[in-house]
Sequence to fold (513 residues):
Amino acid sequence: MSAWTSGYVTDLGYTHGFYRELTPALLSFLALIRAQRGLEPGAPLNYCELGCGQGLSMNLLAAANPQVQFHATDFNPSQIAGARALADEASLSNVKFYDHAFAHFADAPGLPDSFDVIALHGIYSWISEENRAAIVAFIRRKLKVGGLVYVSYNALPGWSAAAPMRHLMYLHGKAKGGPTVSRLEPALAFVDQMQQAGAAFFRVNPGLKERFERVKGQNRNYLAHEYLNDAWTLFYHSEVASEMSAAKLSFLGSAALLEQVDAINLTPEQQQIMAGIEDPVLRETVRDYMTNQQFRRDVFVKGPVPLTPQATQEALLDRRFALSVARTDVTLKVAGSQGEATLQSEVYTPLLDVLSGGAKTVREMLGDPAVASLGWARLQQALTVLVGAGHLQPCLPTKDEGKRAKSVKAFNNAVLQRARDSAELQFLASPVTGGGVSVGRFQQLFLLALAEGRKQPEDWAEFTWKVLASQGQKILKDGKALETNEENLAELKGQAATFAEKQLPVLKSLLIA
Fold:
């Protein structure tokens, strides 16, 4: 393995994911509900991503936020080449990609003197201690006072039981040698063999069997980076907070908003213990023990500025929110560490009904008597839960929405054109939210057919089947390929009809379609 990789998997590309936690509007909302001054929605910003992978998040966010200047680096040149190609196809002028190592990135020509946001997703646990130190040094030098840092990492104690299994896979792959893609399946098979042989480790950790079954069904590119990477470090929250303090950062909150809602994650007895802990680092670490946290999405701030309750409420009144799923698809249930929780119908039903009419500010929501009767505390928690569950998205102001729509249209068209040949890109950008919405390949092809003048769902299905059939592809249903043209077309017609009824109206309300 060549020295420039530092032991990182580079011969198998990372997934083309969009990570909504990186969205400026969501980071702004997080700061506000924590009663802290944060990003102003729709304001010009300098934004940096360290370890951008395939660059989909930065390209999508650049399209949806043309007022923001994005800079992103990843030391894998193949991934940067792909990210630049998509930026060119989408005619994006506000995103720049680099292939610099973290230690040298601060001096890259054209890089701004400072950033409002520095983000790193899926990086911190998978690089060496030297590279982590370089990241902290970069943040210390480049983050503005008042700026935010988003960092995700594999966490303890949640990974404690599974870490030895991961180590076994890693060692098996190391011993086998060869390209990463050829090492993964034998490593999985070896762990399976160990379980079948009754190895005591698996016997005394019965939960690992179910976990391993989930692992076997996951994306192979992701698994290679998670299980075969040389650098792989687990952290307690307290350890990451300590490292970030060297860059003068304070913990702001988790971008995984549902994890901060005590009612669905902690028992009354656990909440009582938490209430007695004053130290914020100890309290957050204890929370991880309560929930057995294995992956964290932390947001830190350089120079926290608290807001008064009145200032927080005034700011939130003018924030817009929009549903990103059909109203009928929102169930009044959410998953927490205590299991599935049922949401109060008298709180969530009137709120969802108001939002079903399109994006609205909190002030507009309160114009509905049923919503106004909830009271401020319940309304704020309901918004937090719905955003955390992914049903609701914080929005940008209506100002400059037309400019954003033009930029988004070019990006989305580039993604739709790629759907003719590939299912790699599964997200489209919204000028309303400034973020992304998950849209599968078939649904992208339906949109492409609609954009080309085909009006009826049956026509979208026929267009999509022609694309698939020309490439010798068939639809999988219940794990089996549909054999005849008639079966494939019938399945697509059913999906197109459902898309027209449910998802298309939502995409139109978000100015995606």
User: Anything to note?
Assistant: The mean pLDDT is 94. Residues 157 and 292 are 6 Å apart (CA to CA). The first helix runs from residue 24 to 33. The longest strand covers residues 143-154.
